[in-house]
Every structure is written in structure tokens, then in C-alpha cells.
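DATA SHEET
Item: assembly model
Revision: 1
Owner: S.N.
Input lines:
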Amino acid sequence: MGKFLFHASGIFLCLRSGNSSPDNLYNLQLPATITARQIYDLHTLILLVCVVIFVIVFGIMFYSLYKHRKSQGHQAAQFHEHKTLEIVWSIIPFLILAGMAYPATKVILDMKDTSASDMSIKITGHQWKWEYEYMGEGVRYISSLSTPQSQINNQVAKEAHYLLETDRPLVVPTGKKVRLLVTADDVIHSWWVPQFGVKQDAIPGFIKEAWIRVDNPGTYRGQCAELCGVGHGFMPIVVEALPPAKYAVWLQEQKASVVAAAEAASKTYTLAELKARGAQIYAANCAMCHQADGRGLAGAFPPLIGGADFAAPEQMTAPLAERGFWKDGKIVLGSKEHHLDIVMHGIPGSAMQAFIKQLSDLDIAAVITYERNSWGNQTGDVIQPLEVKALRK
Amino acid sequence: MATETVHATHESAHPAGWAHPRGMLRWVTTTNHKDIGTLYLWLSFLMFLFAGALAMLIRAELFQPGLQFLQPALFNQFTTLHGLIMIFGAIMPAFVGFANWQVPLMIGAPDMAFPRLNNWSFWLLPVGFTLLISSLLVPGGSAAGGWTMYPPLFIQGGIAYDMTILALHVLGLSSIIGSINIITTIINMRAPGMTMMKMPMFVWTWLITAFLLLAAMPVLAGALTMLLTDRHFGTSFFNAAGGGDPVMFQHLFWFFGHPEVYIMILPAFGILSTIIPTFSRKPLFGYHAMVYATASIALLSFVVWAHHMFTVGMPVAGQLFFMYTTMLIAVPTGVKVFNWVATMWRGSLTFETPMLFSVAVVCLFTIGGFSGLVLAIVPVDIQLQDTYYVVAHFHYVLFSGAAMSIMAGVYYWLPKWTGHMYDERLGQWHFWLTTIAFNVTFFPMHFTGLAGMPRRIPDYALQFANFNMISSIGAFVLGGSQLLFLYVVIKCIRGGAKAGNKPWEGADTLEWTLASPPPYHTFETAPVVK
């Protein structure tokens, strides 16, 4: 009985809080697109039908459990079939299901219709960050978790949007039909923003479509929904919806910054400048596996510190040894050239991915400079963005 | 006729003066269905405790936001192993254990059709699990790609991934051999007079389950072999760069995986259909409808697989087809629930531990069925796929459906197996603790899932904190309660009130005509069923 009350109160709570706050604790998040609204209503309808059937069927069962007890002296009847009843309780559920399937079918047809869109954004999942490319605009950037490691490791207090904040949000205009072209670079990810009612798996080698039309300006948050490795819990999605006029201004700024970045890449930097920038790039892209202190994880992710112990199967150490990064159970700090190669092109068949398309020349130069001059590595090597540029072909 | 043939060979295997090996060797060499059934049940209980301990470590990490006990890599290894071991180690072997003990007893056969094969199908399991669990100790730790093993993620890992693949091959082999044995036994070795439509419901559900196993397991083996060759031999079945398709793995996996779900629930339906009439003191309502419903669930289970993949971006026609077929399963499942309720209706009910568990299963499994219906609706599924709602759904189906039916079955047949009554008071304590803690653990997951918490994450946003803490507390109580179960079982084996041939007034299947515990060899002369 207690269990029953518990369920009943849960259902009551989830209905009551139906339309109150965006951070819904009991029910689907407050819809921000027509699709999400349709899903919300469909779910409410089906939940109610299920609750009614549950109450009727188990009302009958619990009545029987109470009334037909042996301790009450109830004698067992011996009937064991009833043709009419059996036919009726096969047909009625069928009709109820047909009644549910009809509205669901309509919503599916709507959701799948990506035609007549106003613009397209290509979304690429990487381990463990999202890349957004505004098709035809020349604007492309990476968006990764901005929650600091110190919050995750409980050293400082967690902020309100813990794990749901990124360094650069996806920006979309309100009221426009935006077609999303979703794919991935390494493993399967899934791009999901609950308030939009969109969850599309990102599958390497294939481009899948979805669409959104955001009603109101605001910030919307989601997460990767398909297990994609150790960083799966740490690749959030933040979408900033702007009114079309503000969006146009934002887009212009982005185009301008593309030009600025190209200029920045042709400059020469000091070791300190590169190290400072490299620290940020490292934290966002490398620390999940190689760890903030560069010590890696035993047997899985190699340390980046020259002289550190690293034992792993041949399958993992061979490609490292071949590139001059591993000898006799220890990490060796290999040559600058190999370091550039490994960061830019990755190690095929391993979790070490190619960063050539994800990071700019300056970022690659900075992160390698940082790695070669941190945690006791003291090569004094300075890698300039132009050197990286020369290697891009 | 078939019965007599087997009977004869059985006798000739026991020449005069031949003695059973004793001690450990008895269990290693045994070909006796009762011994093998016992081995299966103990192994499954051991695996249940191990995978349950992993679950408690997972819940400890999820007790609060932030990383406290497990780093993400280890967390993923534990969720993967928890899933694989609960499915292949706890639930499936437990049902095979029931089949071993009960199928020959319920159809009046002297043993299983292939006793030596039976021995082998059990002893493959410890080999498989040693391989699987020892992968925790290799460099890089055990496989962390989830029990679904999707490539390309599953291609990335180290040697533990190969160990997992090979372990599953071994376990799959065991299942295939076991199911051939069960099918052959049921088809050929029924007592004279026991026609198919007179078979106990438990036997029917196992017959259908065995066919499911036979059809589904080789598909898993094929998909795993393709994974293995993609990993080591340069094939590109699941690699788009080489002309393959990662989604093809998902199709193959779920073509196995969905029937697998029914493999884990149909024998549970069989147990319920045995226990509920017993404690209602009334025959099972709609026996024929139950048989047909079970068969149609089994057939439908082969045409619904892609409902696990609604978010991969399949064409509209695919989404609609799999939505409609999935919804259709609600009809035969509904028939079963209605039949159980109708069986209780106007019965003469008592509530010993097996019945308490059975009633709770009917009620809680139906919640899992309803959330399954919600998930069948494609647009809603797109919102809920890979969230805690799905975690809630399949634990309602697999814990309060399958695992609690196993507990019901253990309490129901323990008096037969041991000759002693279990401690009814402690059994009821175990029931209430399990049922309440189960709901405290898993009911809130419906809310966290709806509110947007993805599954398989070691850390989560702050709005999910309260429900996660409640779930974790529930999980610790749920896990701890199973030690009470262990105690009750051991206490019952060691002693207790004499059970007599038939401790349950309303029971009417053949095993209750035998002594408790039954002699080592039973039905050497086949009984005649009217």
C-alpha cells in the first residue's frame, strides 16, 4: 500500500509541476520549439492513459487480494476461461493503441521534415567536444566544457550550470528553421537539447538531419546522449538563441574574428605567451585523458612526462615506440617533429585523435609548446604557428 | 517410446558397484539434472552479488555531483560489467537452473535429454566469467563501451575488449547447447499422456524461450566476430572509412538484444503462472490464451529490434514500422496480466513469500510495461532515449520482472529441493525490504530521465542531485537485503520444518508427487498423466 501511495504521489507531482519552471524536476523540460511541445503533449496523453488503465486493472486486483483471502473464509471458484472476456480484453487494448499511434505518427512526419529550412549548421561530434560549422558562412568553431576541473574534483563550490556550460555556445536565430547536419569524427555521439525535442545520433561517416525553430531568445542546455568514452559525461551543449537582427551582428563578428585569427597565426610569439594559451587548450582538449598533471592513466592513456613509467600492451606501446615516445617501459620525450605529427594526425586505431581540423595553427603551436615545457619537461622548445601552417597540406 | 529409450541408456550407465564421485569431483563430473540445476543457481547467485556490488559502487559515485570514488574510466568499466554480468551471469543462468531442476520433474522425465552436454553447458560458464571478470586486471582495465558494445567505441580499447568478446562467445555457446537440450527434453521426454497442451505453463514458456535463444544467440556471435575482425584483421564491417556502417552493428546487436529481453522475461512469466494459481487455489485462467500470448510475444520480438535505435536517424517508414510492431506487443502482454488478475479473482488467496513476490511482480512489471509503451512512441522515445527513464524502464522489467520472479521461484521450490520449509518470517522481511528499496531506487529515475539526465555518466548537473541521492540510498538497502536472501536460503538448506511431499495446498504439478527432497534419480518409471 505504501508503494502504491508513493507512485500516486509521484504521478501527482509530475502533473502538478507540468508547466511551471524550465528546470523541471519531475517532467520533460519546458518546450522551446514546436517539436518539443508536440512531444510534451504526446507524453502527457500517453501517461494519463497508462495511469487510468493501471488504476483500473490494479484496483480490481487489489480488491480481489483483499476480498478473496482464504483467511476471510473465501472459497475458490473453479472457472478458468471465459471466451467473450478474453476477446474483449484483446480488442480494447488494440483500439487504445491505435488511438495513441495516430497522433504519434503525425508528429513523426513533422519531425522528419527538414525541407524549406532557412539555414544549415553542420554539427560534428569529437571525443569530447562539439564542432559547429555555419554552412556557406565560413564560420566554424569548437565548443567544449568550461566547468573547471576543480569543481568536478570538489575542490571549489559548484556553480549553477555545473557541467552544462561551454566556452562557446552554438548561436542560432529565433523564428528561423535551422537544419542540423549531424555527424561525428571518431565514435558515435548524440546531439541532444531536451527543450528542443531533438536528439540525433552523430555517426562517423554518415550525415543525419534534424531541424529546430526556436521560439524565444534564451540559453538552452543539453548533453551528449550516447556513450562515447571517458569524457562522455563532460561534453555539454549550450545553445544561445538570438533575435534575427542580433544574430546577424554576431555572425558578422565571427567572420571578422576569422580574419583576425588568420593574422594572429602569422605572428611570432614568446615561450610565455604560447605556454599561457597552451594551458587553456590543454585543459579543454587533452586533460580528460592525459590528466591535468600530465601523468596519464596507467595502462590506458600515456603520460606526457619524459621518463615517466608507462606499461601497456604492445598494441599501444608499439606506435609510441615507433615515433620515439616510448622505450623500455618509460615515456621518452620525442622530437618536436614527431610531437607535431602525433597531435595533428593522431594515432590511427587508438583514442589519440587527429587535431588538425579541430585546432587552429596557433592553438596547436601553443599546446605543444606547453606540453614540452611543463610538469618537469624543460626542452625550451618554442613552436610558432607558422611552423604548424607549413605542415598543413 | 522416446522416454523408454533414454531410460534404458540411463540404467546401463550405472553398472553394479559403480559409485558416484564424492566431494568436488561429484560436481565437476555430474550429469544429474538436479546437481546441474543447483550449480546454475549458485553460480547465478554469486554473479548477482558481484554485479550488484558493482552497482553499489556506481551508486556510491552517483550519490553526489562531482567525482568522489570512481574516475570516469573505471565508472564506465563498472557499468559495462554490471550490465553484462547481470544479464549473462545472474538472470539467464538462474532461469536455466530452474529449467534443469524443474523441467524433468514437471514433465515426468528421468533427466535431461543430453546429460553430458548438460554438464558441459554449465562448466563453460565459469570459464566465460573468469575470462570476463579477469579483464579488470589487464592494463587499461576491462571493457568500458557499455554492455551494448557499439563500435567504433568498442574498436578503440585494449586487450580487455577481446577478452570480453571471447567470453561472450563462450557464454553464448553454453546458452545454445543448453537450449538444444531443453527443447529436446521437452519434445521427446514427456510422460505418457502429457500432450503439449497439458504441459505446465513453466515448461511452455521455457520451450519458447529455448527457441528464442537458439535463434538469437548465433546472431550475437556473428556480430561479435565481425567486431573482432574489425579490431584485428583489417575488415571494415562497421567502419565507414572502409565502406562499412557502424549502425549495422546496432541492427545485428538488437536483432539478438530484443529477443534476449524476452529470453529473460518469458521464463519469469512461467514461474508466475505456476505460483499464482497455487496460492489462489484455482486453475490458471486462460491457459490456451497464455500459450498463444507467449508464442506471439516471441514471434513479435524478432520484428521490433530497431526501437532501440530510433535516434540513429532511420527513415520515416522504418520508424513507423518499428513503432507499430512494438506497440502491438502490449496486446499479448496485456492478455497475460489480465489472465493473472482473473486467476486471482474469486480465488482463496494466501500470501506466503512466493505469492507476495508474484503479486509484486505483476504490479511492478506492468509499470515497466507501461514505460515501455511510452518509449515505443517514437517522438517521446527521441526525448527519452539514453536517459535515466530508460534505466528505470529496464530495471522495472528486469529486476522487478525477472529477478523478483526468480526470488519467487526460489521460495516456491526451496521446500521441494531441500526438504525443509524456509523461514517464512525472514522470507517476508526479504520481500518487503526488496520491494520497497527497489522502488526507492528506481522510481525516481523516471523523473531524472524525464528531466533530462543522460545515462552512463559518472557525474551530473546539480538539478538531479536530490533524486540521485534517494536512488543511491535505495540501492544500498536493496543490495544489503540480498544478503538476507542468502541467509534464508542457507538456513533452509541446513534445516527447518519438514516440507513433506506437497507443502503448498494448491500446487498440482508432477514434482509435488515426489518426496522432498526428491531422490537423486526420479521418474525412472514414467508417471502416467490423465
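QC remark: Chain A touches chain B through 114 residues (CB under 8 Å).
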